[in-house]
Amino acid sequence: MRESEADVRRAGPLTYRGKAVPDTTTDQRLLDQRGPAEWVHTDPWRVLRIQSEFVEGFGLLSEVGSAVSVFGSARIKPGNPYYALGETIGGKLVEAGYTVITGGGPGMMEAANKGAKQAGGTSIGLGIELPFEQSLNDYIDMGVTFRYFFVRKTMFVKYSQAFVVLPGGFGTLDELFEAITLVQTGKVTKFPVVLVGTEFWGGMFDWIRKTLLVEGLVSPNDPELMYLTDDPDDVIETIRKAHVDMARRQFEAGRVEEEGERIHDAERADP
Ligand SMILES: CC(C)=CCNc1ncnc2c1ncn2[C@@H]1O[C@H](COP(=O)(O)O)[C@@H](O)[C@H]1O
């Protein structure tokens, strides 16, 4: 016997029959009612917003090729020699075959994006909502603005194969030490973290060796997790060599197909 329309209701994957058929449809309940609004300020709702940030971030970045994240001060202005250094490094990363990812803001982020864009590469900005008005810099081809710092950080780590850290303040230090901690604890397979500016970072390196190491608060090899240089070509060469070595180790460990591809990519980037 055929069911009459009144006897059955299909709501997406759900089927209701007979007296179980609801009085209203899902759309009616969605569109007709407007209840109290406090729930948008609750954690369960935030979880959905957080989830949507991951979806947008993964969606934007998943097809990006080999990429390097460049961190550095939001406050350094064009005209500062560090800004020019950031531009040069952004450009050279592109010439070496990498997409450049930054925090999308002003200062050193803008410098690296500018260098990347002017070299004809892909320039990405992962911005962050801040209490004061601020938009993504003008040199970004693709960008997302995140609400949550921790979601944004996941994107930097997941979609880049190296970090370049230019002079900066607390935000830059936060990004540097997050990266180093992930490498130190084996949460990411060892990837190069290159600091640029021997004079700027030298004091921190000394303190790590003379205090952290001497007090036994880091392992003897931990300071080697960071490489320090002033030379943009050395930045690129260090990253490239690390990628070739890494791909070769993975290849030798038997993960042939994919890793062969990566060796190829890294070698293709040979300047
Ligand atoms: C003028 C000003 C303060 C703007 C702030 N606008 C920002 N926009 C995007 N990312 C940022 C911003 N401030 C800090 N960050 C993040 O923290 C780092 C810079 O922080 P800082 O200036 O070193 O501590 C950047 O690598 C970036 O990922």
Write the layout of secondary structure elements.
Layout: E1 8-11, E2 14-17, H1 26-32, H2 43-61, E3 67-71, H3 81-95, E4 99-102, H4 108-118, E5 123-128, E6 142-146, H5 149-159, E7 162-165, H6 170-184, E8 193-196, H7 198-213, E9 226-229, H8 232-252, H9 256-268
Parallel strand pairs: 3-4, 3-7, 4-5, 5-6, 7-8, 8-9
Antiparallel strand pairs: 1-2
Helix pairs in contact: 2-5, 3-4, 3-8, 8-9
The structure holds N-(3-methylbut-2-en-1-yl)adenosine 5'-(dihydrogen phosphate).
N-(3-methylbut-2-en-1-yl)adenosine 5'-(dihydrogen phosphate) binds next to strand 5 and helix 6.
List bound small molecules.
N-(3-methylbut-2-en-1-yl)adenosine 5'-(dihydrogen phosphate)
- The domain tally reads 1
- Kindly report the CATH topology: Rossmann fold
Which segments are poorly predicted (pLDDT under 50) over 5 or more consecutive residues? none
Which value, in Å, is the CA radius of gyration?
24 Å
* Lateral arrangement of strands in the main beta sheet: 6-5-4-3-7-8-9
CATH architecture: 3-Layer(aba) Sandwich
Oligomer: single chain
Main pleated-sheet profile: 7 strands, parallel
User: Into which percent range does the helicity of residues fall?
Assistant: 40-55%
User: Helix-strand pattern, N to C?
Assistant: EEHHEHEHEEHEHEHEHH
Task: Compute the separation of the termini in Å.
Answer: 75 Å
What do the pLDDT scores average to?
A: 90
- The count of DSSP E runs of length 2 or more, i.e. the number of strands, is 9
What is the overall shape?
elongated
Approximately what portion of the residues adopt beta-strand conformation?
5-15%
Q: Which CATH class is shown?
A: Alpha Beta
Number of helices: 9
